[in-house]
Amino acid sequence: MIVIPTGRFSMGSFKDDADARASERPRHEVTIAGPIAVSKFEATFNEWDACAAAGACPRVPDGWGRREMPVINVSWNDAKQYAAWLSQVTGKPYRLLTEAEWEYAARAGAVTRYSWGDGAGRAKPTATAAEAGGISDNQRL
Fold this sequence. Notes:
Number of helices: 4
Order of helices and strands: EEEEHHHH
C-alpha cells in the first residue's frame, strides 16, 4: 500500500475537448480531504482465487494465465465482494476507490488531458472497476 496525501485537483474534461462525454463536464475542483491508502499493484489471480476458494467471490475465466497475473473479467460488484472478503480476512477496512480518488491518485499532479499526457495513444492504462463501472463518489464499501 502507498499513502496518497490530501489535496485538490481539477476533474473533468476541458471545454475544448471534442471527444469528451457530457458526463465529464463541467470541469470542477475536487478536494481529497484525508490521506488514502492505495494498493501499489493490481489484485492477482492468486489473491482472487483465494477469495473464490473461500466462497466469497465468483470464479472468473482468465484467457491469459493465472497465478501472479492481474485478475481480469470481474465486475464492479465482484470487486466490491473481494474488498469485503479482504476486510473480513484481515480485520482491516478495504474498499474500492471512488472515481475522484482513483483519478487523483492516477494523475499524481498531472494537469494534462490524460494522466499520462495529452495524447490518447501514448499509454494503455489498466481499466479499473471504477472506470468500467462508472463508480460515483457516493458508491463506497
